[in-house]
Amino acid sequence: AAGATALSTLLDRFMRDHIDHPIGDTAARAICTTLINNSLEEIYQDMENAGWNLYRERSSTFTTGANTEFVSFADLAAGSIIDKIITIYQITDDIKLMQLTRSEYVRIFPDVTSNSNRPTHYAIFDERVYFYPRPSTAMTIYVDFTERPGSLSGVTDTPAFPAKYDPLIYAKAA
Question: Rounded to the nearest 5 degrees, what angle is found at the Cα of 158, between the Cα atoms of 155 and 163?
């Protein structure tokens, strides 16, 4: 978020004020990173329960392989934690794919291996997007989705809110 404090600074301040270890202690920094991420997860959950929208709309384009039955959320939008898929477009034929529930998908297409063509439908389960029919050739897919804030791991990663809330992070982590 704009005006948010980077993880490296959060760690330095937290260790200086709450932990009796040198700032350069790698093991202590790893433990403090976990404490900070746990506190952020709790804060995000509290904010969501209070009606705050922390989710950001994103989009991603990817290319399926031939005969690809599904793509994982991790492969769909690398670096994002997908909360909800809004729409999927098959760019090759310029069509919006129709979403099915898991039970509809299994009922309508019991043997996905028996059909291969250009996808017209998809279903979401097990953190994967399943296509039907399976793409017979590589094709470009465009996805709109919402992502939720994730854990901080890189030194420049920042929370989903401004620095004025850093004391709350420290209080919950301590």
Answer: 120
Q: What are the residue ranges in the chain where pLDDT is below 50?
A: none
CA atoms within 13 A on the CB side of 134: 15
With vertex at residue 17, the alpha carbon angle to CA 49 and CA 167, rounded to the nearest 5 degrees, is 25
State residue 98's pLDDT score: 94
Residue 158's contacts (CB-CB under 8 Å, 6 or more residues apart) are: 1, 4, 5, 6, 7, 152
pLDDT of residue 101: 93
Give the pLDDT confidence score for residue 149 in this predicted structure. 84
Unique residue bearing structure tokens 């019991």:
110
Strand order in the sheet with 128-132: 70-72, 128-132, 121-125, 98-100
Q: What are the tokens at 134? A: 């399976």
pLDDT at 67: 85
Fill in the DSSP letter of residue 143. Answer: E
